[in-house]
Amino acid sequence: MRCQKATLPVLIAFLICYVPVSIAATPEPPSRESPPSSSDKTSHETAKPAGDASPDEPEEGRFLRLTRDDAGSPVALEAAIVHCAPKDGGETGPTVDLVSAVHVAEKRYYQELNRVFADYDAVLFELVAPEGTQIPQGGVRPTGNPVSMLQNAMTDVLKLQFQLEGIDYTADNFVHADMSPDQFADSMRRRGESVFQVFLRMFGYAMARQAQEPGGSGDFRLLLALFDKDRALAIKRVLAEQFEDLEGSLNAIEGPEGSTLISERNKVALGVLREQIAAGKRKLAVFYGAGHMSDFEQRLADDFGLAPVSTRWLTAWDLTAEPTSATPDRPQRSRKANGNTTPASPADVAP
Q1: How far apart are CA 312 and CA 329, in angstroms?
Q2: Are 134 and 335 contacting, i.e. CB atoms less than 8 angstroms apart?
Q3: Structural element, H or E, at residue 251
């Protein structure tokens, strides 16, 4: 079943998963929740569907994928954890896992990531924020930023959770590895970029794709989904299909000279990675949006001598008719892949 791409679904998917997300300046300390039960079933280690990649078969260049059942219906939007190790096979060298983030996702996706992160010496995370900024466990209040407002609204519409609420950024092994707002603004100024310009690139890309596929029904399907009896599921299925063309979307954002949003921030993150390795850390993770990972993978190969060894897939969006939380033990349908201070001013989380 071929994905029909149109402007509105592409732009909404871009807004909720790729652009910066503002956080509040004065967060309210949330109550700490009990740690998730080990019986929760989220990843393919607890419920491994047919067609899932084995640990010894990395899917090179794949960081998000849409899986379908035998009838072609979407089953899940999945995010990758790609394990990278020394190319020369050295067992003493550091390893780096590229952990793809989806910023609005299932609650149990974030619970599983919290469990995974506990095993690393250091987890390098993205947060365009002043030095020393910390996110309290449970997230922060929404800001008045239009993008932030949209993303928070979509968590309700899609019955999903926001990344800042689901991930425990207070963990001792979490290390900030991103630009400050001033660095971000300076980089965009030097490169002659703006957030609006990035949005226009995505809009132009969406229009071009629609022109290549006359009769594309993405916008119409999204409209119908708004009136579906299971609106959250219907909208998720429409939006999830946009990620099948992740590479094209990223090319639209980056352009031939790269961009502040992806490549320049990746350089800062890898600078922190070098510092952590020099400090003796051996098992590390880079936790960034899936859109960053192709560039990270290439830079790890060129600058650190690391190559992908295996891939593990986690379900970020459950696209089955029955919510996973309601029926965690239901039989799995056959799947196949397609394809240190509180901030004093708003900061951003970006993919």
Answers
A1: 21
A2: no
A3: helix 246-254
Kindly report, residue by residue over 89-133, the tens digit of the pLDDT: 777 789 999 999 988 899 999 999 999 999 999 999 998 888 888
Q: Helices 218-226 and 7-17 meet at what angle, rounded to 10?
A: 70
Q: What is the pLDDT of residues 228-243, one digit of tens each?
A: 666 778 778 877 777 7
Query: Comparing C-alpha atoms, which of 199, 272, 236 is closest to residue 20?
Result: 199
- Sorted by where each begins, the domain ranges of the chain are 7-22+45-339
Task: Judge whether 338 and 68 are in contact, CB under 8 Å.
Answer: yes
Q: What is the pTM of this model?
A: 0.76
Distance of CA 320 to the CA centre of its chain: 20
Q: Determine how β-strand 74-86 pairs with β-strand 122-125.
A: unpaired
Dihedral over Cα of 61, 311, 325, 143: its sign: negative
Burial of 227 (0-12, 13-18, 19+ CB in 10 A): exposed
Measured CA to CA, the distance from residue 254 to residue 263 in angstroms comes to 8
* Cα within 13 Å of Cα(81), Cβ side: 22
pLDDT digits (tens, 9 = 90+) for 152-193: 677 777 888 888 889 999 999 999 999 998 999 999 999 988
Number of C-beta neighbours around residue 55 at 10 A: 12
Identify the band that residue 28 occupies on the pLDDT scale cut at 50, 70 and 90: very low
Residue 103 CA: distances (Å) to CA of 16, 82, 157, 267, 317: 7, 18, 15, 21, 11
